[in-house]
Every structure is written in structure tokens, then in C-alpha cells.
Design a protein that fits this description.
By secondary structure, the protein is α+β, with helices and mostly antiparallel strands. It has helices at residues 13-32, 36-47, 104-117, 130-139, 148-158, and strands at residues 78-87, 90-99. 33% of the residues are buried.
Length: 169
Amino acid sequence: STPINTSSAKPGPREAFLESILPPARQAAETLGVSTKAALAQAALETGWGRAVPRAADGRSSHNLFGIKADSRWRGETLTLDTKEFLKGQWVVVPAKWRKYPSWQASIDDHATFLKSNPRYSPCFQCSTPEAFARALAKAGYATDPIYADKVISVMTKHNLTTFDGGIL
């Protein structure tokens, strides 16, 4: 286990966010055989380092770290909020139904199940680097943003998330 903040100073908001999700993210990544770094970067990007996690009208967190929408197969709680999607060459705001979780752990576990249970993501698990995983994820249609993979990779690189992998990928 690699400590995020090795100084005695209070961790900043990014470090505190990573510390809050690192144990379940590492466990899920090991189970999937993928990079913890990629999962952390994706959660950081999707939530603005935990500052923009979708919230219900009463202020309760959805704990949705990965921007996973609730389709007809989802049997859990949901939350409807507007989102920006890149459709037909332009950004548009549309309402979307999001999955709602009771905890970070539940969100991370569902993310792993979501990726493993969707055949379109199977190429992701053949990748040998976190960067290739991010590109395969984007190519499989995880997000409508045409530069989604570049953004995930930028978070990995800029914030040196490599230290969290423990040798995976």
C-alpha cells in the first residue's frame, strides 16, 4: 500500500479524495486485472476530484464515481440530472438517469461489474498499459466526449497516479 501523502501536513482535496476511494479501487483493479491508476484517473475526471459527484435534491450523494447511467437493466436507486453529451458533432445538454449507490465501495464494485459484463468492453482487458486501457474504454463507447481517453491519460500523467498501481499493467 502506497501512502498518498507522506508528509505530516493535512492532505489537500485531491489527496483526500484519492485516499477515500483507494482501498476499494485497488481491490477492484486487482480483481479485474487492470490498473488502479486508470480507475483513479477515471473517477477523478468524472467527479472533478470528488467535488462534482451527482447529488439528490436533498443533498445526499449518489456516490456515482464513474458517470454510469441507469439503463433498463439497472435495479437500484436512480437520480435524474442534466448532463453534457457530445452528439452529432456538438455538445448538448440532455437529461439523464444516473445510478445511485450507498457507498464508494458499491460504486467501484458496480463499475467493475459493468465493464466485465458488457462484451463491448472486453478489448479493454487485453491492454498491457493503463493508457491503452483508457483508449480502449473510449473506443468502446464509454463516453461521448471525443477526447475522453486523452483526458483520463492526462489525469494519470499530470498527477503521477502511477504510484498507486502496485505493478498491475
